[in-house]
Design goal:
mainly alpha; Growth Hormone, Chain: A; about 80% helix
Length: about 190
């Protein structure tokens, strides 16, 4: 979204790099409020809150190229407010879903894959916009790109039930051992 918004604002609306950078920074500035807010709210309903913030972000992605220029900065702020709040909630859900013994490896894999995809996205979006050629100056040319981006965010919500299923499966084995009578856990010699 950062790369596409930057190229969109400069190519389709003639924004200067300075003004574009200022507007893009709003994505991250908004997270100063949303990360602690939704992070604490998610402690009482992680999957519900992460689905909410991601769906709100998807709606704002879809709206971004359609709003008047005067509304673009507030839409980017709103997008950042919701999307950036998904990071701590998702990471907490991931950590909650995997056992301690493999948590570091899983988190490392998560960061590697998500970082790779995130950094490849700059190239993919740049390539998409480069192929627009002279149509890069037309707002309508960006509508399919923003539709794909918002669809990808909506599809990411489908991963939440998978995380929840892993968490439930992993935690089913712990209570069984905790509920076993002490005598069953002792060796025959200790009884």
């Amino acid at each position: 979204m950062g790369t596409s918004a930057s190229l969109f604002l400069q190519s389709a609306h003639g924004f200067s790099p300075k003004l574009t950078g200022l507007m893009i920074s709003g994505i991250f500035v908004a997270s100063v409020i949303s990360n602690p807010l939704f992070g604490s709210l998610s402690d009482a309903g992680r999957m519900r809150w992460v689905a909410f913030v991601l769906l709100m972000a998807a709606m704002l992605i879809s709206a971004f190229p359609r709003v008047p220029v005067s509304w673009m900065a507030p839409v980017l702020l709103g997008y950042g407010f919701f999307f950036m709040a998904s990071y701590p909630i998702t990471e907490a859900a991931l950590m909650e879903s995997v056992p301690d013994a493999v948590r570091g490896r899983i988190f490392g894999l998560f960061i590697t894959v998500s970082g790779l995809v995130a950094n490849l996205s700059h190239w993919l979006v740049g390539s998409w916009i480069h192929r627009l050629g002279s149509k890069a100056s037309l707002v309508e040319s960006y509508l399919p790109l923003y539709a794909v981006l918002s669809l990808m965010v909506v599809l990411s919500v489908s991963g939440l039930p998978m995380l929840n299923a892993i968490r439930k499966r992993e935690h089913l084995t712990v209570p069984e051992a905790a509920d076993a009578p002490v005598s069953a856990l002792q060796s025959p010699e200790a009884r």
